[in-house]
Design goal:
It comes from marine metagenome. InterPro entries: Asp_de-COase-like_dom_sf (IPR009010), MopB_CT_Acetylene-hydratase (IPR037949), MoPterin_dinucl-bd_dom (IPR006657), Mopterin_OxRdtase (IPR006656), Mopterin_OxRdtase_prok_CS (IPR006655), Prok_Mopterin_Oxidored (IPR050612). This is Molybdopterin oxidoreductase domain-containing protein. Belongs to the prokaryotic molybdopterin-containing oxidoreductase family. Its cofactor is Mo-bis(molybdopterin guanine dinucleotide). By secondary structure, this protein is an alpha/beta fold. It has three domains: 80 residues, no CATH class; 145 residues, Rossmann fold (3-Layer(aba) Sandwich); 83 residues, Barwin-like endoglucanases (Beta Barrel). It is built from 16 helices and ten strands. A three-stranded parallel β-sheet has the order 1-2-3. Strand 8 and strand 9 form a beta hairpin. The chain is globular and about 65 Å long.
Length: 389
């Protein structure tokens, strides 16, 4: 605790108190958002958090951490239909084995590696981009680099609900359906415990299409061996693979929820090579990673780059919830935008006084990558060393 105190700004006494509260109160549960996943140490941080319920016995018990009972197989993925030599070309395969390589359950290319390949052509050129419902110019860090990267593509396609900044720079925009315009099967891989039929509530407008229909059409035009089935055919196949009914029957039922079972590990153990909860990961060790969680300071912080902290003395945070918005969503809706028509940054009154600014002043928030202008809003609940945008 004493080691962590200057890094976390939380006293050693409070750290001990929090640890004892979690360990002694049964059952205990822990939740976290995406903020801890936005640093290079995100993987090890989550691993450390997962160790806590394991060593305190708060695993798959009522009121504690539960393991889902997904009654369906995961949605089909085309990656496992590709030859292994092609799969190994996935950008990030060798360097990010858990996300992109052999340990990935739902493999994804590593986005920064993709961006680097677009700009440099290494390890091979990337000339075309296809973005579904992702406003990269508003949600990714270092927006100047993101913009330059997307503009370097020969052709960019964006499938979107709204004309976002990212859609504005696309060569082709495909209008997509909202969730209310389609039938869907919300069953989350490796997590859920039920199958819900999300029934279409309204007609699809104009030329909009469901995301999956767009993907199917691409597969058909490319003449791929797999991926040409309609979404409804895929749903039916998933249901019938493990249950005694299909898509049409589920539409009549509305949802399916099996009886939930606790302590499932008593039957088959855990999904590790040892069938135990592994605080010391044997699989990660095999892949050359540290088998135990470790701490890594962010690459830019008062402790890793004190000279940078001297030039830019405030810690910038983003993402605190606003009741009228959700992250970057809904800001384009006029009625909701009335709640915050202009961008605001939150400062502690003491910090504002030191800077000579008051509520309503326009100020520039600057990092070494760029700057933006926002209006000052005073908030006593924020740490004086922090600015929230």
């Amino acid at each position: 605790p004493e080691w962590a105190e200057p890094i976390t700004w939380v006293t050693a006494e409070k750290i001990r108190k929090a640890a004892r509260l979690f360990a002694e109160i049964k059952p205990s549960m822990m939740e976290w958002g995406c903020a801890i996943e936005h640093t290079p140490a995100c993987f090890q941080t989550v691993r450390a958090l997962l160790c806590l319920p394991s060593i305190t016995g708060n695993i798959d018990q009522p009121g504690s951490w539960s393991f889902g009972m997904l009654p369906l197989p995961p949605f089909p993925q085309l990656f496992d239909k590709m030859p292994m030599d092609q799969q190994k070309k996935r950008l990030g395969y060798d360097d990010f084995k858990v996300l992109s390589g052999e340990l990935a359950q739902l493999p994804s290319a590593h986005i920064p590696t993709i961006f680097n390949a677009i700009r440099t052509g290494e390890p091979y050129p990337v000339r075309t981009g296809f973005i579904f419902g992702n406003n990269a110019l508003s949600t990714y860090g270092d927006v100047k680099t993101v913009f330059e990267t997307l503009m370097a593509l020969d052709y960019l396609v964006v499938a979107e609900l709204y004309m976002t900044p990212t859609a504005e720079i696309a060569d082709l925009i495909l209008p997509v359906s909202t969730w209310a315009e389609v039938d869907a099967l919300p069953a989350v891989p490796f997590y859920g415990q039920n199958v819900i039929m999300a029934q279409q509530k309204t007609f699809q407008y104009a030329e909009c299409k469901q995301d999956e229909d767009i993907m199917v059409e691409i597969c058909r035009r490319l003449g791929t061996e797999h991926g040409q089935e309609s979404p409804q055919e895929v749903y039916d196949s998933m249901l019938r693979s493990t249950l005694d009914f299909g898509w049409e029957e589920l539409k009549q039922m509305g949802f399916y929820e099996p009886e939930f079972k606790w302590q499932k590990y008593k039957e088959n153990g855990f999904g590790t090579p040892t069938r135990k909860i592994e605080l010391y990961s044997t699989r990660l060790q095999e892949l050359g990673y540290d088998p135990l969680p470790y701490y890594e300071e962010p690459p830019e912080s008062p402790y890793s780059t004190p000279e940078l902290a001297h030039e830019f003395p405030l810690i910038l945070i983003t993402g605190a919830r606003l009741p009228m918005f959700f992250q970057s969503e809904y800001r384009q809706l006029p009625k909701l935008r009335k709640g915050r028509p202009e961008p605001e940054c939150e400062l502690h009154p003491e910090t504002a006084a030191d800077l000579g600014v008051v509520t309503g002043d326009w100020v520039s928030i600057e990092t070494k990558r760029g700057k933006c202008r926002q209006k000052v809003k005073l908030f006593e609940g924020i740490d004086p060393r922090v600015v929230h945008v």
